Amino acid sequence: MNLVYADENGNVFDHPDFIALGRSGDMIVEIMEEELIPLPNGATLVSLPFTRPIGLNPDSGEMQMLPGGAQAVGALLPQGFTRLCLPGYVKADKNEKLPLFGYTAVVWKDGGFYVTAEQCDDPERWDPLNCDRGELGIQVERILAKYPENRLYKHLSNCALGYECLTSSNTFLGRWEGAVPVSYSCNAGCFGCISEQPDDSGFVAPQTRMNFKPTVEEVVEIMLEHLREPESIISFGQGCEGEPSTQARIIVEAMNRVRSQNSLGYININTNAGLTDYMRAIVDAGLNLMRVSTISALDDHYNAYYKPRGYTLKNVEKSLKYASDNGVYTSINYLIFPGVTDREEEIEAMIGFVKRTGLKLIQMRNLNIDPESYLAIIPKAQGEIYGMKQMLEIFREELPDVVIGSYTHVPPAALRR
């Protein structure tokens, strides 16, 4: 398996002599054959700025950095694929931060690109190639003309056309999971937040957070427009907003009005679930699906990343258990990182968390972050690091009734509320 690298102009090459290596946390590691799959459809190769690729020189048996202007290359995986290793690299300038993406190790093998990844879900619905951009433009114009005063649709049109967000695109295409953002504020200060960064963070937020408070009528219009099929999903809590439960009053009133007129489809919330009383009110209003974002079931790790304001991980657990006990199909948006998520103590804590809360689904989501910055703020490993592939095997063995996936699904018939 040959090392893949890029030149200063972004041209990608495979090295004829050097063997590709990966990273687990801050350690350079060998890549195992069983960790490799062909580069999936919808994946993107990118060069990592400010880096130098590292490969294994088979003649000397030593790790070696490529000289000159060569840069490391990583793959950005589509939803449905869980990365197992980061690219093997060192920073050429330790003060520089990588753009906020989830980089996966890529190699050249048998005449094609391969990545260190495992497929955990069907990627079809979230393959960008399945979003017809021409049809999307037509539907955006149609919806904006139909609801000319609805600021949420105007906001989502930029998300769909400008950022090419698939969830907001679905809102206009009237299919699958659609977006209805509601909050401009947040009760957490996530490290590397994708929609809002302090001026001194060193990160550039890849998208802009909404800056207004929608009316109940604006929310209801979007929900009723989207919930036209039995298996459609409308979701509060998007990458372009803060924490949706901070606007619980709007959500509850909108849900009550929608359900008084329409029983079709599913109402989902993507949330940090820290505001337990608000979450209970949203559950009681008839919530169907809840996806809770977490990076760890350990307090010190969780707090270092989320910087929660006015809540703790125990609040998150209480919210999830209340939802599960009341028939909501619950899942976690598990932000995973090779060399961290697969630590012995992290695995043990997460298994306990899942069992206590009655979770039905773990959505494995590759953490978009500058690795060095992330590793600098979280606790050091306390036990063995098992590797991501073995971690997935442990979860499947210890949690046989929990689905390992990558995105929100309509629940099985037996579990529908």
Automatic annotation (TrEMBL):
Residues 181-347 form the Radical SAM core domain. GO terms for molecular function: 4 iron, 4 sulfur cluster binding; lyase activity; metal ion binding. The keyword Lyase applies. Keywords: 4Fe-4S, Iron, Iron-sulfur, Lyase, Metal-binding, Pyruvate, S-adenosyl-L-methionine. Its cofactor is [4Fe-4S] cluster. This is Pyruvate-formate lyase-activating enzyme. It comes from Paenibacillus endophyticus.
